[in-house]
Amino acid sequence: MPRERRTQPCPPEGERAATVARLRAENARLHQALDSHAVVDQAIGVLIALHRLSAGSGWEILREVSRHSDITVREVADLVIGWPQGHPMPAPVRDELDDALRRRRRDSGATPEHGCP
């Protein structure tokens, strides 16, 4: 026996418009978060490849540089990705990255690798 389908009354036009606007904004934020996540993952990959770090250590390095440079992790990640492609890295960020890598090597007992990133 078919089930009776109950329809819900449509909300007022203004409420629908507000819901659509809220969902569009949320969708945009989610897309931005996905894009940022991809950039950060790529930067961690650069750090892993160049400095033999674990993924967790790469993430900690990015966070530390971000905190000390007063820029977002996403911005640090963009700079780390751009550096091997020939894009300049601002000296203060480069210095923070070198310091963070030096501290990581010192704390882990690892031998130094080549410079930034």
Automatic annotation (TrEMBL):
Organism superkingdom: Bacteria
Molecular function GO labels: RNA binding
InterPro entries: ANTAR (IPR005561), CheY-like_superfamily (IPR011006), WH-like_DNA-bd_sf (IPR036388)
PROSITE patterns: ANTAR
Record-annotated ANTAR domain positions: 20-81
Disordered: annotated span: 84-117
Name the UniProt record assigns to this protein: ANTAR domain-containing protein
Origin species: Streptomyces fagopyri
